[in-house]
Specification:
This protein is an alpha/beta fold. The chain has 24 helices and 18 strands. The chain has a seven-stranded mixed sheet with strand order 1-7-6-5-4-2-3, with helices on both faces. A five-stranded mixed sheet has the order 8-9-12-11-10. Strand 16, helix 23 and strand 17 form a beta-alpha-beta unit. Helix 15 packs parallel to helix 20. It is elongated, with a radius of gyration of 32 Å. About 5% of the residues have low confidence.
């Protein structure tokens, strides 16, 4: 008796080549052939009569064919192939594998079926020839740069970017003799000048940039790179392939931190590089050496997350746009960074139809106004009050997940960076990065609106904690010492200084001899009496020592060029509380300096040095005050 399959077989047998036939028949035939090959393996009989340890190790697993093979291939969800090693049935298979005629995997560092499924999904999303998945976004970018930029190469990048990427290109690549040129994201004319006069190995930028949400002209940049034989790689972590696909408009490579939008649930780490196969092949070879592999289970988590990528990103687009427009008119907000706004610096480029198809992503940044000074302690405190008053977002780094995340950039990403660095990068004390999740838009805006009421000075965010004990009648205020002015303090040391023409080696010896890590550079005060000094800059022991180690020829050079002209200054009438606030606002943990405050009078725009108060001095005054109170009682 013939059945449906026999009829299909008869119908298919008369089909000419290239004529459409039974859907999936080729895959079915291949599966049957593999199962037959597996079933021919007679090792199972040996295992079944073996000892208990042999059966425990191999039983149920050594025989690969039959129902298990069919079910693995027929599973709806991609199986997690959790193995470090892939085996061969005989020597001929190994030879065929090495010659490229037997498609399989050999070792987990070089590839995995689950990971490859993710790579192929990325290829489909990005219209890429090939893709490589790695352990993190930073692994993807560092491996890419090391593989594609040779010794003495030249990398061009943009000013606004993820801090750790900047750290790698400024501290690691120079050790290979690689030159780095940094341009403004909007300055494509400068890129053209560089490429035409100097040439470059690789251009790298984020699209959209982190944290100030700048937009680059991908089309023009990709065309320039192609014309000048420069590899173009664009990091679209913020944009996602839903909103922006650089390969479609000429880029060679696209990169993602898959941890963010692609995975989408804040529960896995992954990096992605996709694009031209010739470049992916080079990176894959080095990737196999460095070993930054993506775990198969992590790959499965990203595969699952990608199924809802469009749904999530479209909601995040809507929320971020609505929130940006709300914040743009709020009196407590100084500036909003989001490309949808007409006054955004890159709005014209971002608005081109070929650039962003559906929106600009779920991340926006904005600056709390505070007292009007973006670098002041008041603005820092106002921003912290806003962050602490939010009820829906979590406070923390990262972005792109279903939960909304918020951070005060000065604290989360740049806490250890000195003022001069943060000013150069526009990381103000009021800068907030807000990464929208998929919560209801109206709920998030309402939460932001109520939190902004705490920005005004004197506002206090009420948390559930034990209130301080009230002070009894006649009890002394333990913080009274903080209200003393600098000039009221006893035993202030005479300032230790050096002149502008003092050599670097002498300046270091002065700091060593006096046990200090920061030193004012001065000159005689113009028109002043003898002994009065004008403060010009401040030397850092850590920074100057580092430069001297790198450039021994500056030992006998004047120290002034290596001093910072940005330092903390207070008037002699300032209180110790104000000094402590200044030290906390401008701490420099990057160099290891304890920090100091220059006490100076402002005379005609020049700083007349009076004293120097260090963090150690403040702690000493506090300790002395507490000791006196304890002794008195």
């Amino acid at each position: 008796m013939s059945g449906p399959l026999d009829e299909i077989s008869k119908r298919d047998s008369g089909r000419v080549e290239d004529e459409p036939g039974l859907m999936g028949k080729a895959e079915s035939d291949e599966m049957q052939a593999n199962i037959a090959r597996f079933n021919g393996d007679n090792r199972n009989a040996v295992i079944n009569v073996g000892g208990p340890s042999t059966r425990a190790v191999h039983g149920g697993e050594r025989q690969k064919g039959g129902m298990k093979a069919r079910a693995t291939l027929d599973a709806l969800a991609t199986p997690i192939v959790q193995t470090a090693t892939f085996t061969f049935r005989n020597t001929a298979e190994i030879v065929a594998y090495n010659e490229g005629t037997y498609e399989s995997f050999e070792y987990g560092r070089y590839g995995n079926p689950t990971v490859r499924a993710l790579e192929e999904k990325i290829m489909a999303l990005e219209n890429a020839e090939d893709a490589l998945v790695s352990s993190s976004g930073m692994n993807a970018v560092t491996t890419m740069l090391l593989a594609l930029v040779d010794q003495n190469g030249h990398v061009v990048s943009t000013t606004d970017c993820y801090r750790r990427t900047r750290q790698f290109v400024t501290t690691v690549l120079p050790k290979m003799g690689v030159k780095l040129t940094v341009i403004d994201p909007a300055d494509v004319d400068e890129l053209e000048r560089i490429l035409s006069t100097q040439g470059a190995t690789l251009f790298f930028s984020e699209q959209i940039t982190n944290p100030l949400c700048r937009v680059i002209d991908t089309e023009r940049i990709a065309a320039l790179c192609k014309a000048h034989n420069c590899i173009c790689c664009i990091d679209t972590t913020f944009a996602t392939p839903v909103n922006h696909r650089p390969i479609d408009i000429g880029s060679d490579l696209v990169l993602h931190s898959g941890t963010k939008y692609l995975a989408g649930h804040n529960d896995v780490m992954c990096g992605v590089l996709a694009g031209k196969k010739e470049y992916i092949d080079k990176v894959r070879k080095l990737h196999g050496v460095l070993g930054g592999v993506c775990d198969p289970h992590a790959a499965y988590m990203v595969l699952r997350g990608l199924k809802t990528l469009s749904l999530r990103v479209e909601q995040q687009n809507r929320t971020a746009e609505a929130l940006a427009k709300f914040l743009d008119t709020h009196p407590c907000v100084e500036k909003v960074h989001y490309p949808v706004l007409p006054h955004h610096r890159d709005h014209a480029v971002a608005s081109r139809k070929s650039m962003f198809a559906k929106g600009f992503g779920g991340v926006l940044s904005f600056e709390i106004r505070g007292d009007g000074n973006p670098w002041s302690q008041d603005t820092f405190d106002a921003t912290a009050r806003f962050i602490d008053a939010l009820k829906i977002p979590y406070i923390g780094p990262s972005l792109g997940g279903v939960e909304t995340l918020v951070e005060q950039v000065r604290v989360v990403g740049y806490y250890d960076q000195p003022l001069e660095v943060r000013q150069r990068l526009s990381i103000t004390n009021g800068l907030v990065r807000f990464a929208c999740g998929i919560e209801d838009t109206a709920d998030l805006i309402a939460d932001v609106e109520q939190a902004l009421t705490y920005v005004k000075p004197g506002s206090v965010v009420h948390h559930e904690m034990e209130p301080p004990m009230p002070k009894g009648d006649g009890e002394e205020d333990p913080h009274e010492w903080m209200r003393k002015t600098i000039m009221e303090l006893p035993d202030l040391r005479r300032p230790i200084t050096v002149q502008a023409d003092t050599t670097c080696s002498v300046a270091v010896n002065v700091m060593k001899a006096n046990g200090i890590d920061q030193l004012p550079v001065v000159q005689p005060f113009p028109g002043g009496v003898e002994g009065e000094e004008e403060v010009l800059a401040v030397l850092s022991m850590a920074s100057l020592s580092r430069v001297m180690l790198q450039k021994p020829d500056i030992f006998d050079s004047p120290c002034f060029p290596f001093a910072s002209t940005k330092f903390v200054v207070v008037e002699p009438t300032a209180t110790l509380e104000e000094v402590a606030d200044a030290l906390n606002a401008y701490t420099d943990r990057r160099t290891g300096d304890m920090g100091c405050v220059i006490v100076a009078e402002n005379r005609g725009g020049k700083r007349l040095l009076r004293n120097i108060v260090s963090r150690v001095d403040v702690l000493a005054f506090e300790t002395d005050s507490l000791h006196k109170r304890q002794t008195k009682h």
